[in-house]
Specification:
Strand content of chain A: under 5%
CATH architecture of the largest domain in chain B: 3-Layer(aba) Sandwich
Strand order of the largest sheet of chain B: 5-6-7-3-8-9
Largest sheet of chain B: 6 strands, mixed
Helix content of chain A: over 70%
Strand content of chain B: 15-25%
CATH superfamily of the largest domain in chain B: P-loop containing nucleotide triphosphate hydrolases
Number of domains of chain B: 2
Shape of chain B: elongated
Helix content of chain B: 25-40%
Strand order of the largest sheet of chain A: 1-2
Radius of gyration of chain B: 23 Å
CATH topology of the largest domain in chain B: Rossmann fold
Oligomer: heterodimer
Number of domains of chain A: 1
């Protein structure tokens, strides 16, 4: 519990880090959507469409952000000091996952508030369903953040995260266009958690929740990535 | 507790065939110059570095088991304390990882970290960071303390405080292994000294014995008429050199050599007795170790050139 508490404390005490992580999608949202309040996009209002897109984008970034701090903590060398203590991998991961959601949740809420400020109106059930599915769909990204944080140097981790987020967003259809609607490319898209994050956003636009396929994709990615993160964690302290 | 036969070959042969058994409750100094393999040896014992060959056993089990049981405490040479925490908080955090930690307030007092306990970890001086490392090492009340140059960066007062606190720990029956390149520190604080040079143990024994072995003294005197051969033949003298009118005697037993010198050569003037340099002693011992029995040294580098 102490480990979790200090993890959260350290996140909150770093306002520049948290602030920038949260601010970027917000700034993007306002700068693009503010001028197009009354424009329609694919039959929905542009602010609603763009709010979900930026919520997905921002939450993906926030979910991976703790990985950047892992890489930095590793660079200081103190993690080796921790690795001679009985601290368990599960305790460490629980704290990091909590830290990730601690940033991802406000990232979503802020975007929703921003959307509401530009006239987006949804029912309480729609808000909750969208938020719930987005948070669930972020799980593989949270774990990816851990894998990269334990694997990469602190210099490499920032460009790696930017690359992963942009690539996933692009292929998943976050930026408003889909690369394909059928065929092998579409199959690849449907295998990515980011595609289902976009679909989660669309539930608010009148879609009907996630199909079983979505839950399977998200679960498989998460289950496969957790051992990878555990391996990266173990390797990160030991010199060959 | 025993730790036996740990070897490692890397691009540089950091540790070559080290055999070491440490009994519970012992305070052992790992003494050697820079690059002797002290850090690598300690990190292998902690399981932070994997040996290429050989095994490490701590309290009869692999290092991972000792770690999980909370039996390790260590001061590593690298590692600045995590940021966005205060000193008291990081010590509390380290304590939370162990099953039966000491009281945080007690540890802060013992390590002298009390006076800056409220300070951010990123705003500490080198000596203060070292105290925080010390606090992190002992707060879990570990059975085995591994300290890699624990007094590096501490001033004279800091060193004295450190060893005082350390003695309190060893009196409770803790096993301590510390690396140092100061003979005085090893002599004053350890029951036993293990001398490491170029990745090999070159001497191992009670502190007093090792001190006599490596702490050879030199006698300098102005003495124009004596021959080097006659000086070297004096009791307690290992070798003699001449530099113009001055002679330098390297002694195994300066207490015997000095009266013998004065008896044989009453004309000797400007006599000085000084402790020999540790570096010289290391080089001598290492050289001796390499000429005797090449079979002793596992042939990592040698295998190619043979």
């Amino acid at each position: 519990m102490t480990h979790l508490r200090y993890e959260i404390l350290r996140t909150l005490r770093n306002p520049a880090f948290a602030g920038l992580t949260l601010a970027l999608p917000l700034v993007l949202f306002y700068s693009v959507a503010a001028g197009q309040r009354h424009v329609m996009h694919d039959g929905t209002s542009f602010p609603l469409y763009f709010m979900t897109a930026m919520a997905v984008y921002g939450a993906m970034y926030a979910a991976m952000a703790p990985g950047a701090r892992i890489a930095r903590d590793r660079a200081t060398g103190w993690l080796r000091q921790i690795r001679i203590t009985p601290l368990r991998t599960r305790t460490e991961f629980t704290a990091k996952v909590a830290g990730a959601y601690l940033l991802a949740l406000p990232a979503l809420v802020l975007l929703f508030l921003a959307g509401a400020s530009l006239g987006v109106r949804l029912s309480a059930a729609q808000w909750l369903e969208m938020a719930g599915l987005l948070l669930a769909g972020l799980a593989p990204l949270v774990v990816t953040g851990l894998v990269l944080g334990y694997l990469l140097s602190s210099d490499a981790v920032a460009p790696a995260f930017a690359g992963v987020v942009v690539l996933l967003a692009l292929v998943g259809g976050v930026f408003g266009f889909q690369l394909a609607t059928s065929g092998p490319v579409f199959d690849v898209m449907k295998g990515l958690p980011s595609y289902w994050l976009v679909q989660a956003g669309k539930t608010a636009l009148g879609g009907g929740g996630w199909p079983a396929e979505a839950w399977i994709v998200v679960a498989v990615w998460t289950v496969v990535l957790i051992p990878a993160a555990a391996l990266a964690y173990r390797r990160s302290a030991i010199r060959a | 507790m025993l730790s036996r036969l740990s070897k490692s070959y890397r691009a540089v042969h950091a540790v070559r065939g080290v055999d070491l058994v440490i009994a519970p409750g012992e305070t052992v100094a790992l003494l050697g110059p820079n690059g002797a393999g002290k850090t690598t040896t300690i990190e292998m014992m902690l399981g932070l570095t994997r040996p290429d060959s050989g095994t490490v056993s701590v309290f009869g089990a692999p290092p991972a088991a000792a770690r999980q049981a909370g039996r390790f405490g260590a001061m590593l040479q690298t590692g600045s304390p995590l940021d966005h925490l205060r000193v008291r908080e990081i010590v509390t955090l380290m304590a939370s990882y162990y099953p039966r930690p000491l009281g945080v307030a007690e540890v802060l007092r013992l390590t002298g970290a009390e006076e800056f306990a409220g300070r951010w970890t990123t705003k500490l001086s080198g000596g203060q960071v070292q105290r925080v490392r010390f606090a992190a090492a002992i707060v879990g009340d570990p059975d085995l303390l591994l300290l890699d140059e624990p007094t590096a960066g501490l001033d004279v007062e800091g060193r004295r405080d450190f060893w005082q606190a350390m003695r309190a720990m060893t009196e409770q029956g803790k096993t301590v292994l510390f690396a140092t390149h100061y003979l005085e520190e090893a002599d004053a604080c350890a029951d036993r000294i293990v001398l490491l040079a170029r990745g090999q143990i070159v001497a191992d024994g009670p502190a007093t014995e090792i001190k006599a072995q490596v702490g050879s003294r030199t006698i300098r005197a102005t003495l124009p008429e004596a021959t080097v051969a006659a000086l070297a033949a004096l009791p307690g003298v290992r070798s003699a050199e001449r530099h113009g009118e001055a002679v330098v005697l390297t002694c195994t037993d300066a207490d015997a050599a000095l009266p013998a010198l004065l008896t044989a050569f009453p004309a000797a003037r400007d006599i000085e007795v000084a402790g020999g340099s540790l570096e010289e002693a290391f080089l001598e011992l290492t050289a001796a170790g390499e000429t005797t029995g090449p079979g002793d040294a596992p042939g990592g580098a040698r295998g190619v050139t043979r």
